[in-house]
């Protein structure tokens, strides 16, 4: 608000979007928000619209017509927020239009992407500084949840922050979050123990799509309500599964890391990782989805000894050779039949498995290749892309009326569209439901779509049917694969960086003598000498130091539940322990040792003892 460039480092769920949305509402003009995640952009735009705030998003997967209309609205209309992917900033259309906009604030979300030392580097982020050159007096706010000291310095440098800039950083410590690592020979059994001991909503992260529904099925058979989520599901499936979990119709969400961005569910009690994450940045972000309501929550990694070697192999495979990258790029050009110099900014439906089948490659190696080509700024690959059906009247009101009078067959559909959506159909692409329109007009869905397609063909409307397929966008014009502009030095540095981040992750899970929260804080450059007192390492130390207290706690627990069944919360209230975390771990250990057990409604009882009441 004071016009200073600002870097805000706030943890996941720390309210980053509020930090630019509220000031933007106070300032006169448009706020440009740069974000790399289409799903997150769409989510924030929908939330703003639901509050009566005019916001739009421009990203890959949209047609030139749509982008043209939206950018015009930013110049002429009352648009308050323009969300744009970094790749769009470089296009001629955007460059020409943005200079005509009245911009009051520039917000850079996921700002760590600007640094090649960040875990999710995107070269297109380096072009954001061009906006500074166009709007030298407009303040920039950069936001991220995960940035090391080196990444912070990079953000400030690459965005050309002025000397008067401010840095705001919340601690990486989460007072209510207990970090736990469990090494086991039987991950499924250990997972079931965790789910039994901690009540409430759960996210379980696994690496493979197949693993999400297989594990969800196992949990359902064990009497635990569960659903699954990955980028390969249809939009309807993803929405339904997510909705069931958010509304607590399903307790457990088993998902790949495609799940979680923009999910506003504060009462997640446990986040479990059954596969080792590739780095501490992504782990901290995913684990941080637990306990956003400030109530006690758990972030648990359950791993097998072989998982460390599996992670090392995966990281090694995620760095294909230069020759392989050129082959994949050439194959893409052949697959889409693209001429050199064509297709800049064009998006195509892309079936990874069909592509792999045609060129006889494994999906995992091609996926790694695509991600590297994306990292180099050549393409953009969106796995879970959904765009609803949209319509815009491309003719003016006089021509539309003339057409209605002359073509009675089309009069009802035009009247119905105007009745449902009004004048906005003339100014912006509007979401429509073909099924609802067909029902309202008492015609078949096929007949309705034929009418809409005809109106599109005669250029009376622009009709975009729904898309629900992964999208591959050529950020740069199609290149000669033999001379692909790859930054080989940077690729080698990124390989070394990814390897060192993986080693930090391995060190985190295999260390059993240092406070886990302290390790995370130090990784992000936050100096601390204070242990959290809640992680598994801190609890283990307490147990060694408080043998007498533990003995007394065990005795009190057995005495109380010998007379009556208690939930863990009721026991805690009765005993009022000085150290809550130690008390919970004592209960866990007693269950593990077979002294006590939970009944069907989560009350504790002495194992094998039958009570009358």
Describe the structure in your own words:
The protein has 613 residues and is an alpha/beta fold. The chain folds into five domains: 6-169, 3-Layer(aba) Sandwich (Rossmann fold), CATH 3.40.50.300; 177-303, P-loop containing nucleotide triphosphate hydrolases (Rossmann fold, 3-Layer(aba) Sandwich); 313-386 and 469-497, Winged helix-like DNA-binding domain superfamily/Winged helix DNA-binding domain (Arc Repressor Mutant, subunit A, Orthogonal Bundle), CATH 1.10.10; 390-464; 546-606, Arc Repressor Mutant, subunit A. The chain has 24 helices and 21 strands. The strands form five sheets. The chain has a seven-stranded parallel sheet, sandwiched between helices. A six-stranded parallel sheet has the order 8-13-12-9-11-10, sandwiched between helices. A three-stranded antiparallel sheet has the order 14-19-15. Helix 3 runs parallel beside helix 4, helix 12 (322-336) crosses helix 14 and helix 22 crosses helix 24 (580-592). It is globular, with a radius of gyration of 27 Å. The chain starts with 5 loop residues before the first strand and ends in a 7-residue tail after the last strand.
């Amino acid at each position: 608000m004071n016009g200073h460039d600002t870097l805000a480092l706030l943890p996941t769920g720390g309210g980053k979007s509020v930090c630019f949305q509220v000031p933007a509402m106070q300032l006169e003009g448009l706020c440009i928000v740069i974000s790399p995640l289409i799903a997150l952009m769409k989510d924030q735009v929908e939330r703003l619209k639901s509050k009566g705030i005019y916001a739009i998003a421009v990203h890959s997967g949209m047609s030139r017509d749509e982008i043209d209309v939206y950018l015009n609205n930013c110049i002429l209309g009352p648009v308050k927020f323009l969300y744009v992917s970094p790749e769009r900033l470089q296009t001629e259309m955007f460059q020409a239009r943005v200079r005509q906009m009245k911009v009051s604030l520039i917000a850079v979300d996921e700002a760590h992407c600007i640094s090649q030392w960040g875990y999710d580097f995107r070269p297109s982020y380096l072009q954001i500084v061009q906006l500074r050159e166009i709007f030298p007096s407009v303040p920039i706010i950069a936001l991220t949840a995960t940035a090391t000291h080196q990444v912070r310095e990079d953000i400030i440098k690459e965005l050309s922050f002025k000397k008067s800039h401010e840095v705001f950083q919340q601690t990486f410590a989460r007072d209510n979050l207990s970090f736990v690592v469990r090494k086991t020979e039987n991950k499924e059994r250990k997972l079931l123990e965790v789910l039994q001991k901690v009540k409430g909503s759960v996210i379980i992260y696994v690496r493979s799509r197949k693993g999400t529904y297989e594990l969800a099925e196992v949990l359902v058979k064990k009497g635990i309500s569960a659903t699954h989520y990955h980028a390969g599901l249809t939009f309807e499936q993803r929405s339904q599964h997510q909705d069931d979990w958010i509304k607590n119709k399903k307790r457990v969400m088993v998902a790949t890391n495609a799940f979680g961005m923009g999910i506003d569910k504060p009462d997640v009690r446990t986040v479990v990782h059954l596969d080792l994450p590739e780095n501490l940045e992504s782990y901290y972000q995913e684990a941080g989805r637990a306990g956003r309501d400030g109530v006690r929550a758990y972030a648990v990694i359950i791993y097998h000894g072989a998982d460390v070697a599996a992670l090392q192999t995966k990281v090694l495979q995620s760095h294909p050779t230069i020759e392989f990258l050129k082959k994949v790029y050439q194959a893409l050009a052949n697959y889409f039949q693209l001429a050199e110099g064509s297709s800049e900014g064009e998006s195509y439906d892309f079936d990874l498995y069909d592509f792999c089948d045609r060129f006889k490659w494994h999906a995992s190696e091609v996926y790694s290749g695509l991600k590297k080509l994306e990292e180099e700024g050549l393409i953009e690959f969106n796995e879970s892309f959904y765009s609803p059906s949209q319509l815009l009247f491309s003719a003016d009101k006089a021509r539309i009326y003339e057409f209605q009078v002359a073509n009675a067959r089309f009069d009802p559909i035009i009247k119905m569209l105007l009745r449902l959506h009004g004048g906005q159909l003339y100014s912006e692409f509007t979401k429509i439901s073909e099924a609802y329109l067909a029902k309202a007009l008492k015609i078949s869905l096929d007949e309705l779509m034929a009418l809409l397609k005809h109106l599109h063909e005669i250029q009376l409307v622009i009709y975009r049917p729904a898309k629900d397929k992964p999208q591959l966008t050529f950020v740069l014009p199609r290149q000669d694969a033999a001379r692909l502009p790859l930054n080989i030095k940077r690729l080698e540095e990124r390989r070394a960086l990814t390897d060192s981040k993986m080693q930090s992750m391995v060190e985190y899970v295999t260390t059993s003598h240092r406070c886990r929260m302290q390790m995370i804080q130090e990784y992000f450059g936050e100096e601390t000498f204070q242990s959290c007192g809640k992680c598994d390492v801190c609890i283990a130390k307490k147990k060694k130091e408080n043998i007498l207290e533990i003995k007394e706690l065990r005795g009190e627990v057995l005495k109380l539940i010998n007379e009556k069944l208690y939930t863990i919360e009721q026991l805690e209230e009765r005993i009022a322990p000085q150290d809550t975390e130690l008390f919970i771990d004592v209960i866990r250990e007693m269950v593990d040792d077979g002294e006590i057990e939970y009944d069907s409604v989560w009350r504790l009882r002495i194992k094998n003892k039958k009570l009358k009441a």
